[in-house]
Design a protein that fits this description.
The protein is mainly α. It has helices at 2-17, 44-50, 52-64, 66-96, 101-125, 127-155, 177-187, 202-220; strands at residues 39-41, 159-161. It has one domain (2-212).
């Protein structure tokens, strides 16, 4: 039971403290031995996080969506202040041994419900910010494939691996991150941070299209003609 309450409180605190929306930028891998021609490794997440378009958008977003961020920060702090005494009371009652299990479970359920509703409220406030980040990410994704191809062609790379698929590397010459980053910065120097009205992320659009495609055949199928039951005369 105690774990439930601690988890609820920690999640709410995380919402309050992470509203700066800063994203840690993965460091490019460094290493140093014999090079196999045509082989390279790239961490595309690190490339994205270090792209000029991404970093500039992260900075601009703090100003463009300042009202939403400030509102969420303030509301998150209020939720934390509301949750903490409830969690403290629950833990004290549990350790005191004078409160029945049913009452403890009721307290825990109330705390968890408050925490979940708070999360939903903060997500709603920050929805424009989340859409902005998704919009920028999609613009980068649209250019990433070409950036990878350009970098591979210039370095004569025939096989590109992710760091997760490699156990060890002893030469930084395999690292294609900087080359891909340079190509990406050329293809997309900057990104738009405010999506058009009604814009939805690609995965949502694809899901909607798939659902529409599944419903279309049944909706478009013509009705079967009524049968009178009268047989042809054969004449």
């Amino acid at each position: 039971m105690k774990l439930i309450v601690k988890s609820a409180l920690a999640a709410s605190l995380a919402l309050g403290t992470c509203l700066s929306l800063g994203v840690a930028q993965p460091a490019f891998a460094q290493a140093a031995g014999t090079v196999v021609p045509g082989l390279a490794i790239a961490n595309l997440d690190a490339v994205v996080a270090n792209a000029n378009a991404y970093k500039t958008a992260e900075t601009q977003r703090q100003t463009t969506y300042k009202a939403q961020i400030d509102q969420a920060t303030s509301r998150g702090a209020a939720l934390n202040a509301q949750l903490k005494p409830l969690a403290d009371k629950f833990n004290a009652d549990r350790q005191g041994g004078k409160v029945g299990q049913a009452q403890l479970e009721q307290q825990a359920a109330s705390i968890q419900q408050l925490q979940q509703s708070g999360q939903a409220e903060l997500q709603n406030i920050l929805q424009p910010v989340a859409l902005s980040r998704a919009y920028v990410q999609e613009q980068i994704d649209d250019k990433m494939d070409q950036a990878v191809k350009n970098a591979m062609a210039k370095k004569k790379i025939s096989l590109l691996l992710s760091p997760q698929s490699v156990l060890a590397v002893n030469n930084n010459a395999y690292n294609l991150n900087q080359d891909i980053l340079a190509e990406l910065n050329t293809l997309l120097p900057s990104a738009q941070i405010v999506p058009p009205a009604g814009w939805l992320p690609r995965e949502v659009r694809e899901q909607q299209a798939q659902q529409g495609g599944q419903q279309a055949p049944s909706a478009a199928a013509p009705a079967a003609p009524a049968r009178s039951g009268k047989q042809p005369s054969g004449r």
